[in-house]
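pasting input
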Amino acid sequence: MVRVGIVNVTGYAGAETARLLARHPAVRLVAVTGRSAAGQPLGAVFPHLADLELAIEEELAEVDLAFSALPHHASAEVVPRLLERGQRVIDISADYRLHDLTQYERWYGAHPSPWLLGEAPYGLPELHASQIAAARLVANPGCYPTAAILALAPIIDRVEPVLIVDAKSGVSGAGRSLSLTTHYCEINENCHAYGLNGHRHLPEMEQELRALRARHRDDAEALEITFVPHLVPMTRGILATCYARLERGWSQAALVAHYREFYRAAPFVRIVDAPPQTKHTLGTNLCLIYPRLDERSGRVIVIACIDNLVKGAAGQAIQNMNLMLGLPEVTGLDGPALYP
Amino acid sequence: MVRVGIVNVTGYAGAETARLLARHPAVRLVAVTGRSAAGQPLGAVFPHLADLELAIEEELAEVDLAFSALPHHASAEVVPRLLERGQRVIDISADYRLHDLTQYERWYGAHPSPWLLGEAPYGLPELHASQIAAARLVANPGCYPTAAILALAPIIDRVEPVLIVDAKSGVSGAGRSLSLTTHYCEINENCHAYGLNGHRHLPEMEQELRALRARHRDDAEALEITFVPHLVPMTRGILATCYARLERGWSQAALVAHYREFYRAAPFVRIVDAPPQTKHTLGTNLCLIYPRLDERSGRVIVIACIDNLVKGAAGQAIQNMNLMLGLPEVTGLDGPALYP
Amino acid sequence: MVRVGIVNVTGYAGAETARLLARHPAVRLVAVTGRSAAGQPLGAVFPHLADLELAIEEELAEVDLAFSALPHHASAEVVPRLLERGQRVIDISADYRLHDLTQYERWYGAHPSPWLLGEAPYGLPELHASQIAAARLVANPGCYPTAAILALAPIIDRVEPVLIVDAKSGVSGAGRSLSLTTHYCEINENCHAYGLNGHRHLPEMEQELRALRARHRDDAEALEITFVPHLVPMTRGILATCYARLERGWSQAALVAHYREFYRAAPFVRIVDAPPQTKHTLGTNLCLIYPRLDERSGRVIVIACIDNLVKGAAGQAIQNMNLMLGLPEVTGLDGPALYP
Amino acid sequence: MVRVGIVNVTGYAGAETARLLARHPAVRLVAVTGRSAAGQPLGAVFPHLADLELAIEEELAEVDLAFSALPHHASAEVVPRLLERGQRVIDISADYRLHDLTQYERWYGAHPSPWLLGEAPYGLPELHASQIAAARLVANPGCYPTAAILALAPIIDRVEPVLIVDAKSGVSGAGRSLSLTTHYCEINENCHAYGLNGHRHLPEMEQELRALRARHRDDAEALEITFVPHLVPMTRGILATCYARLERGWSQAALVAHYREFYRAAPFVRIVDAPPQTKHTLGTNLCLIYPRLDERSGRVIVIACIDNLVKGAAGQAIQNMNLMLGLPEVTGLDGPALYP
């Protein structure tokens, strides 16, 4: 049994990783850390995890593979030490997602361990499975980029390089830290956009979609995304509505067939026949995608949805772990969504 | 005191019209109808309206001005009779919003009283105040078009004629009739798009925005909107996020100044400095607009929000009534939003 | 025009007082304070109050009457100074609600201005209108006590003195300060009891109900309430379900008639014919009461509901102000609930 | 592999049974029925169940064990036929819960198959495991009774026989059928009691609690419950707050120890140290119980919570199936709650 640990279990991504690992048949969660709660039983902070019978420690015990659910910066300080101990690491923070140090510095400031940037594959298994399988360190994608990249990847070399991603997120995407924005009374019965000065998930989307476009087009660097995230009064779920102008000659049927073929081997991606609902992904690692040709305008609308804490964070991390351990991708991640 | 009545008070738009009229200082709600509930006290169907001490009747009694909150088709059957009795009418249904009969027939089927199409001004007071003031019949706009048209009107002749309106609506927009879509357990903790085969509010938006563009441009008929509505788990509120490509030469400051000037005389439109929140319009007739230049892409993002039952229906109807009666536009429509 | 002010406008009770005062025809809100936000325009903190065009000040300017929406302790430090300046005060905090200093100290600790305890009437107008009208300082009741006392007052001398109050509250009752309990993701889709070690609203309920019982019974001190508050995922509203054992001889009809008679002169209390819904009080100063005799068990169940921020705080404060100023009780507090 | 089927999969209890069976390692769901949706793929009605690759049939195919999720009356018409075919049956409806035909007729009307009433054990495994294991037909308990009986069973012979159960339920308890009560806009931001004329779950509670009391007391028939259910704006979860007067001599510690001992062998019951939250049971078969002695009043408050669709319906049905098949009770029902 592979022994795994979670650094900083006390946020939502950390807790969700623990929840999913509790059901995983091939690994065993043996250690969790969390600074403010160190010394407490895990069940004291998270009653739903009491059966794991773990104590929250200050430093991560010896494990075979570690998940870092620290905030950015903090994660890049800890990850090198974990690697030095010979542990493989899946970093759920943003610290190793951007391959370009300049981009990182622009969005996040100085990087504590920049020498690792070139090593970590971007952990989106639908695009980079073989690099992930071989990696020592994997950079788990952001929640918005997961939805947007999966929505647009199949057609990214067939569209004008000017894209819009209008995304709607549940509140858990903002984390467990306290803020007026996530106070119940402020966001209940409310809906608003945010991050119009530039959201940190934008460079990830552009990095990955440009790389895909560059395989067939020489204008990849011109690719540009207008990304507007919105907060919606629900706990979980991201819905990304993507708009692009498709090259001529496509029919709706051909578009759907193309998406189905592109994701033929992807066990968590479903191409669906109607606008997908976030509720149908609740608690699962699924990504539902609905590509739709608006024949009148020649525009393509692609709607993708995920559970932001699963496919957008913890579930994808475990999918990456499965690849790294040579397990079937779906191990421990099966079962229907919680509905209603 | 002007006597007014509501035809079909039993839906959300009708009930909201009654709620607002209860506080109106210059008119008196004297009659309400509703087929299924005829004979019952209004307070039996809507406890919050019990103080009005009205009974729901089958036929509208003699009034000076009537609001029709019937569904489309049904409204266009009743409105001619009201007009014949010499009553002025504000039609909250969609029946007289489209000036072009062909368009109406395409989206709604045969029109019961097409001869009135040419007569009724589109009841968006920010654009058509003088026609409304003089009208016998006013076509109250749809909720989505109200938000989208107000968002885009000031720049409609300065953008490429290819627009995107990504709108998020609370559930009351779907009405009080029962459907699985509006069952609590289905839409709570859920978010999804709908109406991708064409939403009936699209032709209204195009009609009004083309007409505005036609004043300064000769390509108005080419103007085309991609409109994707979404359902969000809240009762009230619409947030419309609009995307367009602006002509060169604008700065953010100039854009804001232009919007402020455009709506200088509009008491319910506020140009705001941060992404607006639907909650800040709750229960009011306000439309909050945030125009934002994305200098990197040359794209303009305009976000507008309203309470779909007030500025998107009943409140706008009363604003129209005020104009028709020569009252100040804000009469009976003042007071802050209900927050939190 | 009477000039009024609000000390500590930055919590929900303070903001709600401002919202209601904005519509009040006989007084004018001329000053608001708030320590952390001092210097900012009120509209920067609360966009829905921007039209008031007030700045948040550090110290309250000269007014005729002040509302204190400070937390307990802090309020009792400021109130004496306001009174010394000749201003009448309505204290929305808990500081002057308990007449017995020992009780206060037990639940809240040392009292900064105990000499005022004997002076301030308990500001429940349905019970103490004449004292309130004459008072210099009024202690505005807590939200739970308002619902529970109004529910039980008419029969408090007809029941066994052992009562249960099982109350359900929306999240705004917990205030605008940040806490994990009020984080959206923690309380959305959740329901739980709290305060079982003793909730500070209990002594208020017992003080008032014992005083009422003492008018006709000599066992008033034996009266004892088991009070269990619950948090429910909604922003506003309190529903109190009260259980007591009624003396023999009552019928359902007699019970209802007795309640109607008891509240004959109370403009905000409605005796209703079906279990009341918090939504029917949304934004209003109403208290809906449903008394119900369970003939099988001889037990009476009385369900009362209010909007916790209006009748449970700001609206009741304004009702008290109206009495103090000799205005009709309903002034500025009329209009139907916001529904749906 | 045991083959199981679900009669009437199209309600929430049926769909939830299918969701849980999809993960069960020892049985295989091979057939589902549903009248209105017969002929459709299961995934067309419930996208989250598409992977089961089942079609909805009109009649149940040959299976080893069947779950009936039909409404009452309809279930009692179908169950005899299933039994005649030699299939064991777990009836999720109310049809076989009451052992006394007169009681059934009083609450539900005529019984289509009364001869089976004496045969079916009440399927609460914590009380009747051995009868369930041997049964051909098991009557799965209602959601409210499950919470209330588990809360009160350990002390039912130590309290005065006059009990109060104040219960709060999520909306899914009202089923998937359409009604104004469950329209999103009506119950969102709302809370109210219902069923005060007598709720059908009351006789179940009394039957089971009287039977338990009768083991040690001869006044069991005098036991009487006042039961007030409330609707709360959340999809899943029941919280039952139970009030009773405990015999003298108990301490809080002794009470907790007694509950722990009583449920020593019950894998799904947890005695907790703080008021439990429905969210901590989300998607699981757990029942969290918090017994609390109010030493001042001598009253005991016991709060229990469950997921109404799991321990309150489908999960309990599978727990019963596990007993009937000689499997460990927890088979297929493990894993932490979905939080947040």
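fyi Chain A touches chain D at residues 12, 15, 18-19, 22-23, 46-52, 172, 176, 188-189, 235-236, 270, 272, 276-277, 280, 282-284, 334-340 (CB under 8 Å).
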